Amino acid sequence: MESFSLILAIVVVTALAFDFTNGFHDTANAMATTISTGAMRPKVAVAMSAVLNLVGAFLSVEVANTISKGLVDEAGIRPEVIFAALVGAILWNLLTWLVGLPSSSSHALMGGLIGATIASAGVGAVHGDVLVTKVLIPAIAAPLVAGIAAMLATRLTYSLGKKADGEASRKGYRAGQIASAGLVSLAHGTNDAQKTMGVITLALVAGGAVAPDSDPPMWVILSAGLAIALGTYLGGWRIIRTMGKGLTDLQPQQGFAAQTSAATVILASSHLGFSLSTTHSVSGAVMGAGLGRKGGVVRWSTATRMFVAWGLTLPAAALVGALAEYVTGFGDWGTAVVAVFLVASSAVIWKLSRREVVDHTNVNDTGEAEPAGVVTAAMAAVTPPPAAGAVTEEPVPDFPAQATSERTPSTTTTV
């Protein structure tokens, strides 16, 4: 085997940087609903999510193998190709984080890898059957399945809770939310941390550091788990705000139903080796839970922007990855140019984010209300309010700001 070269070291560091952005970009998947309903304090929520992401990274390597052995032809890949792919994925993650849109880190990585591979070795180096069956089909099916499951679970939850004691029910659903949020965090670590493991393993194979068809080495698993956990702890507050308050107004019953449904879908896909987007699953579940409560509505203007971002993720990351691969083809100076461009672009995006700081102190502030969309207004007009006997959310002393919003029915909220 060849020695661990400089370019290989650069690829590993860049992959871990992507894993870090994946962590703070996708924190909202696990904790947005828990934070928005006041079930947990923001900083405590992201700390718990970080620990469980780290644990989840050690539970499976099926998704990692899908990426390192199935999506592209290992024989046509150089370490520079992996580096170019990661550049496309990181920049897309940072751009969507800046505007607060919950797009898929997974698809950004897939897109960057596909674009860079095509630029380097041609279309034939991409395994189309794997792309369709384990990436594209799950991308469409996951939000639909999670959304329908969450909507049905929400309706069942409210139906069963009509005669329940209000205080006991409130405490029970809060506990359920915390447990289900932990399950989503565990599932996220199991699914998303593996993607970085797969990319690093693919780079190690391409650089001759490990044998072809190898599983991720233990140091790869550990470093990927730590990187995603650190990113999760810092919290992607902009996306947490969108997921928790921007799509719909959730009560603990809905939050519990959404997170449980999403976690089930994510864990099942991890077991089957599907490179599933946790963002798609959780977003679909949140919207389904929003529609599952009588009087609940979805802010379709926000959802539409999110859908557009989903559709652009693969091609946009692929385009950047292909361009980066073209530049790295000029040799070491080309790789250096791409690296400088990545660092400079990341710095500019961070600087722009400082113009309006979003953190744990204002993550539940929704800001100025958006004008109501046609679908939202129509649903609000024809859907009756929650039944009188249904369990309603009580104010929580520790969260005075949330308490006011939780007592306000979503049908009266202008969106």
From TrEMBL:
Matching InterPro entries: Phos_transporter
Subcellular location: Membrane
Keywords in alphabetical order: Membrane, Phosphate transport, Transmembrane, Transmembrane helix, Transport
Region (Disordered): 385-415
Source taxon at top rank: Bacteria
Transmembrane feature ranges: 6-24, 44-61, 81-101, 108-126, 132-153, 218-240, 307-327, 333-350
Composition bias, Low complexity: 385-394, 404-415
A Pfam family recorded for this sequence: PHO4
Protein's membrane topology: Multi-pass membrane protein
PANTHER family named in the record: LOW-AFFINITY INORGANIC PHOSPHATE TRANSPORTER-RELATED, PHOSPHATE TRANSPORTER
Family statement: Belongs to the inorganic phosphate transporter (PiT) (TC 2.A.20) family.
Protein name per Swiss-Prot or TrEMBL: Phosphate transporter
Organism: Streptomyces djakartensis
Classification of source organism: Bacteria, Bacillati, Actinomycetota, Actinomycetes, Kitasatosporales
